[in-house]
Design a protein that fits this description.
This protein has 123 residues and is mainly beta. It is 3% helix and 39% strand.
Amino acid sequence: MADIDPLNSSAHNVDDGRRTAARDSLFLSATIRPRGDTGEEPSPVRVRNLSADGMMADYHDASVPGDAVVVTLRGIGSVPGKVAWVGQGRIGIAFDVEVDPKLARKPVTTTPRPLPPPLRPIF
């Protein structure tokens, strides 16, 4: 497992070493699993920041930069990507496709159920 400090300037994107997208700081539940049919259960993670081209999350499983993964985010769905860095209980993922981070912030809505009729006294 590579130990790279994501807050240090040496932490970098898999492709060219530069972060260019604005990042939203947030706390959001998501899952990460290896890409392909590995039979492994997705690992739950807590996303700390999210941008159109990547994310940082709390992560305690084994992984190395370059591993192909699929991240599932609420409001966005499953996104393929690669591990950019791992260290200090966190992981950086560079997405293979751009996402709209604002979709992850939208509240989850449900269809309201009709209220039951009011109760009447029985006496």
